[in-house]
Design brief:
- There is one protein chain.
- This protein has 89 residues and is α+β, with helices and mostly antiparallel strands.
- It has a single domain, classed as Beta-grasp domain (Ubiquitin-like (UB roll), Roll), CATH 3.10.20.30.
- Helix content is 22%, strand content 24%.
- The protein has a five-stranded mixed sheet with strand order 2-1-5-3-4.
- The longest helix is centred in the middle third of the chain and has 11 residues.
Length: 89
């Protein structure tokens, strides 16, 4: 199962510890995570079920290419890293 890691700034808003989840695509893995923590979905995906503009998802250090369908391939030993971009000055 893939490891799913969320950045610390997401932890301030919602409980999202490191976890493992089954699936062969980013979408499948995240759907498993959302089933356990439904509130997390709205922090990551917009109302069209696409990755929010201020959220980035990386698989093994590489940014995913499909932000709409989340179809990037996932292997059991992969790590997804999900974070929100921070802004301000």
């Amino acid at each position: 199962m893939a490891r799913v890691v969320f950045t610390a700034n997401l932890h301030r808003h919602i409980d999202c510890p490191l976890q493992t989840a089954p699936g062969r695509s980013v979408r499948a893995v995240l759907e498993h995570v959302f089933a356990a923590q439904p509130r997390l979905r709205s922090y990551i995906l917009d109302d069209q079920d696409r990755v929010r503009k201020h959220v980035a998802i990386y698989v093994n250090g590489e940014r995913i290419t499909d932000r709409e369908r989340l179809s990037d391939w996932i292997d059991d030993d992969d790590e997804l890293f999900v974070f929100q971009a921070l802004s301000g000055g």
